[in-house]
What does this fold into?
Amino acid sequence: MDRLDSKIALVLSKLDKQALEERSNKNNLSKEEMMLSITHDTGLFLNILLIANKAKRILEVGTSAGYSTLWFADAIIYNYGHNNGTKAITTIESNPTKVTRARRNFVEAGVDDMIEIVEGNALHKLKTLFNFHNQMNFSQKKEEFDFIFFDADKENLIKYFDIVIPFVRIGGILVADNALFPDEYRAVMAKYLAHIKKAKNIRSVTLPIGNGEELSIKLG
Ligand SMILES: C[S@@+](CC[C@H](N)C(=O)[O-])C[C@H]1O[C@@H](n2cnc3c(N)ncnc32)[C@H](O)[C@@H]1O
It folds into this structure.
């Protein structure tokens, strides 16, 4: 297999070990302390998708310790190299302890210069980020995202989708984690799926990988 960026690979393998222990409940951690990261397979799948889609600008909702973010950073480096401190990835996290952990992992992986961590409540932060762009003069080009990953609270998922969708480029991808598991999210995810099925120019499929990934493309 073609290798990941060596520094990123080291941090991912450390986090893979932590995730395994977490899943086998060895550490008796509270939900607040757990990483609750995507699975290794999911990370690899998203990494391949981002490389193929030539994603340059990525938004993530729900950073935790930065495991998924590191898979995204590797795809950017594979396609474009380290791009002089340009923030290719914006990731939102409300838990300050997790922000500190993620920042430490990004520094250790040598990618802190390409990741902007926005600390705070995602709904509030998304409204602020995107209202700013909405108010921009129309002659200015609004920022467009190639890839959006939803992996925070599920209750506001539909709101997150509605806020960000105008800022996804045509051919851009949205992925929502936990489309299939755990059971506690089943009802709220069903509402999200019904919502996006009604959305104009969105094509979507549920993939049985990890906890189930809802993969959607914006077609127009
Ligand atoms: C499932 S974890 C994210 C895992 C991460 N994407 C990964 O795969 O490594 C969800 C994260 O979302 C954060 N979160 C939950 N609700 C949030 C909200 N309303 N705003 C911002 N972050 C939130 C939690 O603190 C938690 O760290």
Observations:
- Residues 6-23 form the longest helix (18 residues).
- The chain has a mean pLDDT of 93.
- The pocket of S-adenosylmethionine is lined by residues 35-38, 62, 64, 67-68, 92-95, 98, 121-122, 151-153 (CB under 6 Å).
